[in-house]
Amino acid sequence: MSIQALAANVAPLETDHPFAEPAGPIETAAGTLDAVSLAGLADEAALLKRVDRKYMASPEQAGALVALLGVRGARALDIDGRRHFRYLSDYFDTADRRLHHDAVSKRRRRFKVRERIYLDSGLRFVEVKTRSGRGHNVKDRLELDPVGPAACRVLAEGYPLPYSYSFESTGAGDWIAARLEERGAVGPGDGVRIVGELLPTARTRCVRTTLLLPESSRLTIDTELSVAPLYGEREEVGVPFVVIETKSNGRACDADRILWSWGVRPAKVSKSGLAMALGHGERANKWTRALRAVGSGA
Is 16 exposed, middle or buried (0-12, 13-18, 19+ CB in 10 A)? Predict the structure, then answer.
């Protein structure tokens, strides 16, 4: 069953919002910060071309970081009174896992294609992530038809896998092909063929908190992270650490410097890479530290 079919076959909820707010050290600290709207975040820190740094941390470390950044003027993304948002991301790859292998080997013209659903609002996008000639991450996105609250709740609780999908059903195939060619990720005229080879392969879910820092950098904190294959026999796996990611125009931001002063160094972490390694048994030498942390439960 596709997501479209799921949305058409679940009973409506009595409320428009399917979830209660989470509670923990991160949520407590973020609740004390001044707010920034989604439009304000986009205006001040769109950062579609950016340098990302990722960190593995405990919820307590992340909560302490949020509190300290708040003193320094950070603001929390707030949408209709909510500051913590559930994300579901489905990643696409070829049958021979070409995109995953390109990421592991750091191929220059690598790319990712994913569909992301913001489960609190039902907003739904297809996204293409490529690399610029200067090594910056570049993200293009296309909005798709939204998903209703009842279907979002089912997806958040672990929609049974696998499911069927085609880009033709969303009208996104030609758009993805055009973006891949435009960004130089594939050769001229190759986009349609490559998009036709893509299959839904891995799923990740998390709760995300987003901060806008005074220097117009962004910080995201992903908790309750889980990864799963979209076909095969393996089941969803919970990730026992928090993923903190700073997004800036290049220079280290306040959050980077604070984490470094605590001895927390940047880590190689890829949510889709973990899903491929844990769900499909693919090699993932780049993410050995993260895989060991998942295996140890800490």
Answer: exposed
